[in-house]
């Protein structure tokens, strides 16, 4: 099967890897190449195709290996794999790279629910140290003065803004945002359906029909076409006999005829998959459960009397008429008008709000801590929580965070108080 390699992808990886094996006088070459972009666009698979084309051996590290119950294990693992890869270069006499998949999943910090552990700090610090001293990478408890071969590091991820900022600076990491254009998508999808006899025109029509879908959608679509034959086989042998006939059959594994891969059938199956995606995106049952739990808890723990925070002379609320309806805005004398307006704008755009604080010492490492248990989606809750946070942490930094619940990413981070108490 002749898979398609995007020219831009091939060019970026080939230049970065080759440059790391050359000795360029007076040129500081970033050791790490960070490939980031939307989920399911084939970042890892394109890397594998490039490595195969260039004859490069790869040592893999998964983002899931970057956490451990034992402090220091993930950092030690990275150093060990790096040294092993350097030894491969020496012994095999060929290019080798270290590849870390889904780095942001293992070392990133997405929201207040993501713990910033000792291992997270050590992984970031270790990668920074290796990028700065690529020929002097030691294992804990031992020292070898022999310089190592330089090993290019390739990392993949979806959102590198969640990583520690000094790690991704230009001197250490070269960034490459991978977003296949239409020509790339057509080429990749053609490789996926190459054994099925689809014409160039049919491939283009399939890509144009599902223009907003990622590459893995088309791979999953091809797999789904086999469902009908497998379903017929299950009903033929019976549910009770499927296990014996598939796993431990004396007659060998079942064989299936080539299914129907005509364009109309593919589009019909693809639309069913898109419908399932929409139901997942629109369900948001977790948010509903959280709202119910918050309401139940606040009802159970509500004090017998509530004292208003403030009562300005012109009333506790400001009213604005929009399309014949009245919108109530909570006003606060303790927050600046700009902060209050920013809260309203974030909530009106469907975003949620979180509040974080940090002392002066931890501010240098970016170790912010959340002040709320869940994301806030009501203006009154946001203002009251913010006021109480400013009072409680008057000698610390406090920042307002806007979060897109659908994309699960931060859209804004604004410091509204500094240790001198000014906001």
TrEMBL record:
Biased composition (Polar residues): 308-335
Ribulose bisphosphate carboxylase small subunit domain ranges (all copies): 327-419
Disordered: annotated span: 294-335
Family: Belongs to the RuBisCO activase family.
InterPro entries: ATPase_AAA_core, P-loop_NTPase, RCA-like, RuBisCO_activase_AAA_helical, RuBisCO_ssu_dom, RuBisCO_ssu_sf
Top-level taxonomic group: Bacteria
Protein name: Ribulose bisphosphate carboxylase small subunit
Keywords: ATP-binding, Nucleotide-binding
